[in-house]
Amino acid sequence: MLGEKFYRGKNRIFMKEQIGEKREQGFLVLDIREEKAILSALRNGEFENAERRIEGIFAQISNRRPSHKSIQMICAELINIANKVSKDAGIEIAELYESRESPYEIIQKHETLEDLKAWVLGRYKKLTDLMQDANIIGLAGPVSDITQKAIAYIRRYYGKDFSLADAAQEAGVSPSYLSRLFKEECGMGFTEYLNRFRVERAKRLIEEGEMKLKEIVHNVGFNHYNYFFKVFKEMTGMTPHEYELACKRDQKVGVD
Fold first, then answer.
1. Hey, what CATH topology would domain 188-256 get?
2. What share of the chain is helix, strand, coil (3-state, %, to 5)?
């Protein structure tokens, strides 16, 4: 009866006659085709596609009631997929998880299947959001450890004043080598990538509407408003003011 709590959820009263005969717990594994489809969806930033597939996997778990060991192995595979995409995109894996605990330990602590599914989907949603923020969706493929370190450095210090040399020192290579490698693997130079990242952050802050433009400029690491204005327009086709007005119009239409 207590075992039913995992499948039926919390805050429920279970009567023996409602449970029926105990189902035989079998073994269930993640289909390799499904695994590849989820991997592809995440790499392309298609959260809705990944979400639909995760929902299907957990519906299958609910129907077949496999052993808890089997469920943990499936969730571990789903975590491995997220970690692989995160690493390939240059995102620090630690950014996906709020807790300092290992994600493999966390999946063993959820009391219900619904909580476990919500946690997995939460990690996937955060990963696609991080990829969108970093404007790195669409990279040709995995990048080297050196480039990953440089991208991680950008993500961590984008709001401060730093140079290619600083990132190169973090990655343990010369600035000229990092510059060449970064362009080869990312399809753009280090400075362009940094500016794109900062503009994406600025767009998010403008959309939230809680900061003034002058505050946003310094918050995302630009030292001069005129340079921010120039870069923002080059990358979005709009000035920051035009983008702000467009966001306000869209919000008004949404309210109406």
1. Arc Repressor Mutant, subunit A (1.10.10)
2. 70, 0, 30
